């Protein structure tokens, strides 16, 4: 695992399907949960420095993920609104219902973007704190 995820960069263009990418993100977070559970249970004889370095790396990766998510969400909201104005949503639905649903979804994406940005800032603070653990 790398903090920047560079190992996966080359695979992104090959599988740029948003559903595939979202499934990969879900799988990655599940793997992180399993990693954390193993670490919490204390399984394996890993020295302290290695555990602290892993923690720092995981926090850096999660920070990057939340920052990327915060950048993506406004684009998703814009795309949704463009689809509405282009007439590509809800073939048989009432236009006022489509408009209301689209704006509710865009507002929710905007709130999620703010939360993802805050999450990125908090993870950055945790990452900085974990860096001091490694040096001690």
How many domain modules? 1
The N- to C-terminal Cα distance equals 23 Å
Q: Which regions contain 5 or more consecutive residues with pLDDT less than 50?
A: 1-12
Main beta sheet: strand number and arrangement? none
Number of helices: 4
The tally of strands reads 0
Tags for this model:
mainly alpha, 4 helices, elongated, disordered N terminus
Q: What is the secondary structure topology, with strand pairs?
A:
Layout: H1 6-14, H2 18-41, H3 48-85, H4 95-135
Helix pairs in contact: 3-4
Q: Could you characterize the architecture of this molecule?
A:
This protein is mainly α. The protein has one domain. Helices cover 82% and strands 0% of the residues. The chain is built from four helices and no strands. The protein has helices at residues 6-14, 18-41, 48-85, 95-135. The longest helix has 41 residues, at 95-135. The model is unreliable at 1-12 (pLDDT under 50).
What is this structure, in a nutshell?
The chain has 136 residues and is an all-alpha fold.
């Amino acid at each position: 695992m790398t903090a920047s995820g560079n190992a996966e960069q080359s695979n992104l263009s090959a599988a740029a399907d948003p559903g595939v990418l979202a499934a990969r993100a879900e799988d990655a977070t599940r793997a992180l949960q399993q990693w954390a559970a193993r670490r919490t249970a204390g399984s394996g004889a890993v020295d302290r420095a290695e555990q602290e370095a892993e923690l720092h790396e995981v926090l850096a990766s999660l920070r990057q993920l939340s920052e990327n998510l915060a950048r993506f969400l406004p684009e998703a909201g814009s795309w949704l609104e463009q689809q509405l104005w282009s007439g590509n949503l809800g073939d048989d639905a009432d236009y006022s219902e489509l408009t209301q649903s689209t704006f509710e979804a865009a507002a929710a994406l905007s709130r999620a973007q703010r939360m993802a940005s805050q999450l990125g800032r908090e993870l950055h603070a945790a990452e900085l704190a974990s860096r001091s653990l490694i040096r001690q």
